[in-house]
Amino acid sequence: MRTKLNCWEFMNCGREKGGLLSGKLGVCPVALAMKYDGTHDGLAAGRICWRARDSVTDHNPAFCGHTSCYLCEFYRRVVNEEAENARCK
Fold first, then answer.
1. How far apart are CA 47 and CA 80, in angstroms?
2. CA 85 distance to own-chain centroid
């Protein structure tokens, strides 16, 4: 059985709860966005990070290093895995 990755696992950013960089940089808002918990089988907004990004970062590229979700390899992976249900809106 294949496990679906959350963005922090795929990006290896260390900003998830208890992550290596969470103490220094803070826990990423995606890992705290519980209103998205379970979406596409992810934890918090871990598999729909672009939705949390829209609500908490005002498209700040420092959030995940991308100015556009369409440039993100993780976004493209989720869209591929989840088909039409995952597209950025």
1. 12
2. 15
Spatial separation of the C-alpha atoms in residues 41 and 47, rounded to whole Å = 7
- Structure-token match 């995606």, residue found: 30
Give the chain's end-to-end CA distance (angstroms, integer).
Answer: 30
pLDDT score, position 17: 93
Q: What is the pLDDT of residues 6-19, one digit of tens each?
A: 999 999 999 999 99
Where are the alpha helices (H) located in the chain, listed in sequence order? 7-11, 22-25, 29-32, 49-56, 73-82
Hey, what amino acid is at 63? F
What average pLDDT does this structure show over 60-76? Answer: 74
Q: How far is residue 68's CA from residue 6's CA, in Å, rounded to a whole number?
A: 18
SS3 55: helix
